[in-house]
């Protein structure tokens, strides 16, 4: 797979985020709930170090709710505060505000004990492109703000955005690149639209998707594409051939592949989670 991330850019983005991290009390790490693993990024663990963090599994409306619960349990078992969110359809992100207060309890107590009243808790959003950082920032702030820089390594002076509570946010989200060191991660990111479609041949992506749905969500595949029991268990490449003939009347594999991918992105094949929680020893 050809993914070009120039080391220079990566270092620049990393350094900028590292600098800005010094200014905040905590990090809101935004991930895509459909990809709780694939939408992480390689250097965050290194640069975040001891900084307090809340992991937000955003776009939970698109993800498989059972899987989201599993992921939350898994993160919480690792003493990591985590929550699921549908930032698109939720107006006030009270759930984030509450989580921040809980996470920062010790600091809040210190302020209170020393009589400081107007204390602020400062945070920054970090995540790979397209996970919903700007949407979350806007909703926390309660109005549309010009979120600056949504490309890795954009330079800007930072401003603090006020929210309805004592939480303040950096107006520049930390944008990191996804870690695509494994083909499956690349496919997962492409299927959700997190990375450009051009990076993977559309037919390969469609076959990957069919195989996943045959394995994980066969009922929906069968109902939506009106498949017989025999068709449902065809090898995925053969199933693509079958669907292509059925839909296009010829061998326009590209058109059929695009339809499958579009159906998935538009939710016609239901809520889905592409990353599975790793069980110990797997
Ligand atoms: P950013 O690149 O991380 O800043 O992501 P954006 O905030 O620009 O969001 C990317 C796209 O995802 C936009 O089209 C949003 O409307 C959409 N989006 C953001 N949050 C959610 C969510 O919770 N659910 C759904 N369905 N879409 C979302």
UniProtKB/TrEMBL annotation:
InterPro entries named in the record? G_CP_dom (IPR030378), GTP-bd (IPR006073), GTP-bd_ortho_bundle_sf (IPR023179), GTP-bd_ribosome_bgen (IPR019991), GTPase_MTG1 (IPR016478), P-loop_NTPase (IPR027417)
Is-annotated flag, keyword Transit peptide? Answer: no
Cross-referenced CDD domains, in alphabetical order? YlqF
**In this protein, which residues make up the domain named CP-type G?**
14-178
Task: Name its cellular compartments.
Answer: Cytoplasm
Question: Where on the tree of life does the source sit, at the highest rank?
Answer: Bacteria
- Main localization is cytoplasm
Q: What UniProt keywords apply to this chain's record, in alphabetical order?
A: Cytoplasm, GTP-binding, Nucleotide-binding
Q: Which Gene3D superfamilies match?
A: 1.10.1580.10, P-loop containing nucleotide triphosphate hydrolases
| SUPFAM superfamilies given in the database record | P-loop containing nucleoside triphosphate hydrolases
Protein function: Required for a late step of 50S ribosomal subunit assembly. Has GTPase activity.
Hey, which family's this protein in?
A: Belongs to the TRAFAC class YlqF/YawG GTPase family. MTG1 subfamily.
Name assigned to this protein: Ribosome biogenesis GTPase A
Instruction: Specify the species.
Output: Bombilactobacillus folatiphilus
């Amino acid at each position: 797979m050809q993914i070009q991330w120039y080391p220079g850019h990566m270092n620049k983005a990393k350094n900028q985020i590292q600098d800005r991290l010094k200014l905040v009390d905590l990090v809101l790490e935004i991930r895509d709930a459909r990809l709780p693993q694939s939408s992480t990024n390689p250097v965050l663990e290194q640069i975040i170090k001891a900084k307090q963090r809340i992991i937000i599994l955003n776009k939970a409306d698109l993800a498989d709710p059972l899987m989201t619960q599993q992921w939350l349990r898994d993160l919480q078992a690792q003493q990591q505060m985590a929550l699921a969110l549908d930032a698109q359809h939720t107006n006030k992100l009270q759930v984030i505000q509450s989580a921040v207060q809980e996470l920062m309890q010790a600091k809040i107590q210190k302020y209170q004990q020393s009589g400081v009243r107007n204390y602020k808790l400062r945070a920054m959003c970090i995540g790979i492109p397209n996970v919903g950082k700007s949407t979350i920032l806007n909703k926390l702030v309660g109005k549309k703000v010009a979120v600056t820089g949504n490309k890795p390594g954009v330079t800007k002076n930072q401003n603090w955005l006020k929210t309805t509570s004592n939480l303040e946010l950096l107006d520049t989200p930390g944008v990191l690149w996804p870690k695509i060191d494994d083909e499956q991660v690349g496919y997962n990111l492409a299927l959700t639209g997190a990375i450009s479609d051009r990076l993977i041949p559309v037919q390969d992506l469609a076959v990957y998707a069919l195989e996943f749905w045959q394995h994980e969500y066969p009922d929906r595949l069968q109902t939506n594409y009106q498949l017989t029991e025999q068709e449902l268990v065809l090898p995925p490449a053969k199933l693509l051939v079958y669907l292509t003939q059925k839909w296009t009347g010829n061998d326009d594999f590209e058109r059929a592949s695009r339809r499958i991918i579009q159906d998935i992105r538009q939710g016609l094949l239901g809520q889905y989670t592409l990353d599975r929680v790793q069980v110990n020893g797997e």
